[in-house]
């Protein structure tokens, strides 16, 4: 019997083999605390059970957001945290996780974590909602457990621009796994695209919808400038409803007076675009130098992309679109 063979091998192993002693982590954590259900915990003590629904079936939602240090003002600004927390609550609703719903409480918990770690520099933050049912079933909706992290982080991509491949993997669709929300399971799709792109010598991947329109990348939305028009795919074309995308749209319209086209984009429109850029909380606003080895524009950062990049980096510390209240001071003035 197979079971007996396995059992025999296991007991032989436990009697004869010396178990390896775990080594100390290679790199020390960059912060002392994480947050678990609103309580500060040591970085190493934030744990989830191995038989939880989240680990067995990939049920969970999260947010990724940024805070930026202003050296002039000696202040840290967290960017659109309330909007991210609202999306987290939306994500929970779509995948049916009975987690906390109060956006203000979630926001204050995260900012409290940053203060507890005394972080004064650019950073990346995460809020993750998992289902921690012991020996969980896929349809369990709770108990929900919330982890938050705030970790120092500089640029995600370098400033040299991205060589992008159109992936052979299709972007998942709202008929199967809704890309509109940040469900952890969605990231298998982007991961496959990134692995393929890296294998083929590219920096990043863009995925198309099942019906052949440009959707988005593994962790970023996409814009192009073509025939003098700024264009981006609609939220019904298999994309995350990106908060950076929304910020860029607002900045383009209000600060630059542009009329933006939100419409389906064909693959070959990218090949003949004057400018292409991707955007996301981690990716910020980053220019694309080529798509499938077809150079975009001059190969450098395009004029409109550069203006939007500057405006975005001003907005994150409250120097642009200040009336929107996007940049939230973390420390008392
Ligand atoms: C798949 C995907 N698309 C787009 C984005 C950009 O979204 P946001 O600007 O809200 O960070 C992200 C990043 O979170 C993402 O993971």
UniProtKB/TrEMBL annotation:
InterPro entries in the cross-refs: Aminotrans_IV, Aminotrans_IV_CS, Aminotransferase-like, B_amino_transI, BCAT-like_C, BCAT-like_N, Class-IV_PLP-Dep_Aminotrnsfr
E.C. number: 2.6.1.42
Matching SUPFAM superfamilies: D-aminoacid aminotransferase-like PLP-dependent enzymes (SSF56752)
Pathway entry: Amino-acid biosynthesis; L-leucine biosynthesis; L-leucine from 3-methyl-2-oxobutanoate: step 4/4; Amino-acid biosynthesis; L-valine biosynthesis; L-valine from pyruvate: step 4/4; Amino-acid biosynthesis; L-isoleucine biosynthesis; L-isoleucine from 2-oxobutanoate: step 4/4
Catalysed reactions listed for this entry: L-valine + 2-oxoglutarate = 3-methyl-2-oxobutanoate + L-glutamate; L-leucine + 2-oxoglutarate = 4-methyl-2-oxopentanoate + L-glutamate; L-isoleucine + 2-oxoglutarate = (S)-3-methyl-2-oxopentanoate + L-glutamate
A Pfam family this chain is assigned to: Aminotran_4
UniProt keywords, alphabetically: Amino-acid biosynthesis, Aminotransferase, Branched-chain amino acid biosynthesis, Pyridoxal phosphate, Transferase
Enzyme class: transferase
Highest taxon in the source lineage: Bacteria
GO molecular function list: branched-chain-amino-acid transaminase activity
Cofactor: pyridoxal 5'-phosphate
Transmembrane parts of this sequence: none
Function: Acts on leucine, isoleucine and valine.
Family: Belongs to the class-IV pyridoxal-phosphate-dependent aminotransferase family.
NCBIfam families noted in UniProt: ilvE_I, PRK06606.1
Protein name: Branched-chain-amino-acid aminotransferase
Organism phylogeny: Bacteria, Bacillati, Actinomycetota, Actinomycetes, Micrococcales
């Amino acid at each position: 019997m197979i079971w007996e063979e396995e059992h025999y091998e296991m007991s032989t192993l436990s009697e004869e083999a010396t178990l390896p002693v775990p080594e100390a982590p290679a790199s020390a954590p960059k912060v002392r605390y994480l947050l678990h259900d609103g309580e500060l915990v040591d970085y190493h003590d934030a744990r989830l059970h191995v038989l939880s629904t989240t680990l067995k079936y990939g049920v969970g939602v999260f947010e990724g957001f940024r805070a930026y240090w202003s050296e002039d003002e000696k202040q840290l600004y967290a960017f659109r945290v309330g909007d991210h927390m609202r999306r987290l609550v939306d994500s929970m609703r779509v995948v049916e996780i009975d987690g906390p719903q109060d956006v203000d409480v979630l926001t204050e918990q995260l900012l409290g974590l940053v203060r507890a770690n005394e972080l004064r520099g650019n950073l990346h933050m995460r809020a993750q909602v998992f289902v921690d049912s012991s020996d969980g079933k896929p349809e369990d909706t709770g108990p929900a457990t919330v982890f938050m992290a705030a970790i120092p982080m500089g640029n995600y991509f370098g400033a040299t621009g991205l060589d992008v491949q159109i992936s052979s993997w299709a972007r998942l669709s709202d008929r199967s796994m809704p890309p509109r929300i940040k469900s952890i399971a969605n990231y298998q799709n982007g991961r496959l695209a990134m692995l393929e792109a890296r294998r083929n010598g590219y920096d990043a991947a863009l995925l198309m919808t099942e019906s052949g329109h440009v959707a988005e990348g593994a962790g970023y939305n996409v814009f192009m400038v073509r025939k003098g028009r700024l264009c981006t795919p609609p939220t019904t074309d298999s994309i995350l409803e990106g908060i950076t995308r929304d910020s860029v749209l607002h900045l383009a319209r209000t600060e630059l007076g542009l009329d933006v086209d939100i419409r389906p984009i064909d693959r070959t429109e990218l090949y003949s675009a004057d400018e292409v850029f991707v955007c996301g909380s981690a990716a910020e606003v980053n220019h694309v130098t080529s798509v499938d080895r077809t150079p975009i524009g001059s190969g450098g950062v395009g004029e409109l992309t550069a203006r939007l990049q500057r405006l975005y980096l001003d907005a994150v510390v409250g120097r642009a679109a200040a009336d929107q209240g996007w940049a939230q001071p973390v420390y008392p003035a």
